[in-house]
Each structure stands twice: as structure tokens, then as C-alpha cells.
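Form P-L/3: holo structure prediction, ligand zinc ion.
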Amino acid sequence: MKWTKEAAPVERQRRDRAPSAYQQAMRDRLLAAPVVPAHAAELEPLRRHLRDPSFEFVVGPGWRALVLLCHEAVVAAFPEYELLAVKQKWAALSFQAFPRPWKRGGNWTSDEAVRLGALLAEFTAASEHICERCGNAGTLRESRPIELTLCDACEPCVGPDGRL
Ligand SMILES: [Zn+2]
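OUTPUT (holo model):
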């Protein structure tokens, strides 16, 4: 399914909800000073889970620590999880994964899929409050064709193309 503008409002409603205790703890941890954006090399542990080893992680430096935390949480529950993509979608983190490598006939239960989905949703929700450029507290920015989550300091530093 191709994502369209029409699909967005459903996802956006989540922003108005109060964060869960888990999300709040994660946010507190990530936003504890000093915030230092993780180096791209810190995402190396995710590589062996990639279906396509040539995939490049397309998230800004401010989210790398969150992505690493997400990987650690997922690998703890699903040691052989399969990673399809890590990207930004509608200003939120999209960590696309399966509980185990995909196989014809199935390789995981629906319960496992639900558990993984719930886990990933926590990190997506956390990303909605973290600047993708620097890792400080951020909010949704709709000033350019692409929606981004940025802090006040980073908002003027990013051009209309959304490149971080
Ligand atoms: Zn920022």
C-alpha cells in the first residue's frame, strides 16, 4: 500500500495522547543532558538483521540513539528479527521489522506480530517528541512540504527539501 496524505490523520491522532510510562522513561533517558547525537557507525549492530544488507538507514542523527534503543528492545524479545527499513514517515520513526526472517508459509505467530507491533509503536510515539536533527526535545513542524519533528533551534536550519 502506498502512503498518501489521506492516510496521515489516523496516525497523527496519536500525537495528542499522553505518553505511556514506558515512553516517558525512554524520552527522559534520551533527553537527559548532554544530548549527543549518535554516530552513524553506532547503528552497525542492526546490520546483520537487514533483509537487504545494502540498505542505508535514513533517519537523522538526532534519532540514532532512539533507533539503537529500539533495536535493543526488539532483539531482546526477538533475537533473530528481520529488519526491512528504518526511516522517517510522517515526521515519526518507522522501524519496519518482522519477528523472524520471512518464510513462505509463515515464520511467526500472530501473537508475536502483535507484540512486535506494540513494541515498535512505543518508539514511533517517542520519536514524535525528539528532534530528528539534534536529539533534543522536538515538535511536529509543518512549514515545508515534508513534515519533520524538530526543535526550535533546528527548525530554521533545515531547508524546504527537508534534508537534515
Ligand atoms: Zn534540534
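COMMENT: Residues 110-127 form the longest helix (18 residues).
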